[in-house]
Specification:
The chain is of the alpha/beta class and about 375 residues long. It folds into two domains: about 180 residues, Rossmann fold; about 190 residues, Up-down Bundle (Dehydroquinate synthase-like, alpha domain), CATH 1.20.1090. The chain contains 14 helices and nine strands. The strands form two sheets. It has a six-stranded parallel sheet, sandwiched between helices. A three-stranded mixed sheet has the order 5-8-7. A hairpin with a 4-residue loop joins β7 and β8. The radius of gyration is 20 Å and the shape is globular. The protein starts with 14 loop residues before the first strand and ends with a helix. The model has no long low-confidence stretch (mean pLDDT about 95). Bound molecules: fe (ii) ion. The site of fe (ii) ion (FE2) has 5 residues, from α6 and α10. Fe (ii) ion binds next to α6 and α10.
């Protein structure tokens, strides 16, 4: 009999509400959760640009006293995380309202863990090390459309001392509530729209062909591919268009709903060493890998490649149309332009083989397969 653990499950712990202007109802949402002492976590530029203002005004209208921390100003390191923990009395908060991109929301999830259970964030690194669901609730209000952190089960931190990233993964740390409001994403510059949207497109695509895919995750993945691929270029060119922003945001959250439940694949396994070696943005790394990895996986996934290209709105020449879209988005650079050297190959191959995101890939690559994929990206 098949081990129950090996049968893909579909869990969705976060309460997801979507709508234009929803950020300005944050106070009402906190009231429903019974929270009165929130921390609002964001970054300096979002605060100074006024992006956070609808949230703060809403808390004020609800007579909720809040504290603002705008310290998540770069991709979070363990040191940055520790410095935020040191400056706040986390036990004094009953909720964290995270207004920002994936970095802000990831840090919020980590702070909820430390504020609820104590200890150091390294104590929780790995899979499901939580003693329970954190008592501090997280309300995530994304200002980008890409990482899906608003509903995901992960925290990613850069461990500078060990020159690597580490992950805290548990369904218990999924945000309590995700409020997706496209008006919060209009300030996103073109390049971030392109990279974060590409990341979401890769989440959906890798999820759809993953060994961990289930009927429900496939449904979310295909719809996400459709929304993202058909609207990403226009959203980059027309950032003020709320219809396009809305489609990208729904697509990104749906993409992570699928990916969280089926895990990723080779694009994400490759991205770890590529980003570390060449200081490449994550969305760029997974985007440049996508066509090559899809072609590699094609023999193992039946008609799923055709279904992906149909969802993208492409015809018979899907691979060249996908390449064209990625070029248009500016995420299709060659590895050679990023500083690739042949002597890096053993590291790239080894770290990709060791990645927890490799096993769900539909084909089981050998080290030689990975080297061949990398060479096609040079
Ligand atoms: Fe990603």
């Amino acid at each position: 009999m098949t081990d129950l653990e090996s049968i893909p499950a579909f869990d969705f712990p976060t309460s997801w509400r979507h709508g234009r202007g929803l950020a300005s109802r944050s106070g009402e949402m906190l009231g429903r959760l019974g929270c009165r002492r929130p921390l609002v976590l964001t970054d300096e530029s979002l605060l100074s640009l006024g992006v956070v203002e609808p949230v703060l005004a809403s808390l004020g209208e609800a007579a909720i006293a809040y504290t603002v921390c705008d310290a998540v100003n770069y991709e979070p390191t363990v040191d940055l995380f520790d410095s935020i923990v040191a400056r706040l009395d986390l036990k004094g908060f009953d909720a964290i309202v995270a207004v920002g991109g994936g970095s802000v929301i990831d840090v919020a999830k980590g702070l909820a863990v430390i504020g609820s259970f104590g200890g150091h964030i390294r104590d929780y690194a790995g899979f499901d090390k939580m003693p329970g669901v954190p008592s501090i609730k997280v309300v995530a209000i994304p200002t980008t459309s890409g990482t899906g952190s608003e509903i995901s089960d992960g925290v990613v931190l850069i461990d500078e001392a060990r020159q690597t990233k580490f992950l805290v993964i548990s369904h218990k740390i999924c945000p309590t509530v995700a409020l997706t409001d496209p008006t919060m994403t209009v300030s996103m510059p073109r390049q971030i729209t392109a990279r974060s949207g590409t990341d979401a497109l890769v989440h959906a695509t890798e999820s759809y062909i993953s060994k961990g895919a289930s009927p429900a995750s496939e449904l979310f993945a295909l719809r996400a591919i459709e929304l993202l691929a058909r609207n990403i270029a226009a959203a980059c060119d027309n950032g003020e268009d709320l219809d396009l922003r809305e489609k990208m945001q729904i697509g990104a959250t749906m993409a992570m709903t699928a990916a969280m439940n089926s895990k990723a694949g080779l694009c994400h396994a490759l991205a770890m060493p590529l980003c570390a070696l060449y200081h490449m943005p994550h969305g760029q790394a997974v985007g440049m890998a996508l066509p090559v990895v899809l072609a590699y996986n094609a023999p193992a996934v039946g008609d799923k490649i055709d279904r992906i290209f149909q969802a993208m709105g492409f015809g018979d020449d899907g691979f060249s149309q996908l390449e064209g879209l990625l070029t248009q988005l500016g995420v299709s650079a060659r590895l050679a332009d990023s500083g690739f050297q042949e002597e890096h190959m053993p590291t790239i191959v080894q770290e990709t083989m060791n990645s927890a995101q490799r096993p769900p890939n539909p084909r089981e690559p050998t080290p030689e397969d990975i080297a061949a994929i990398v060479r096609r990206m040079v």
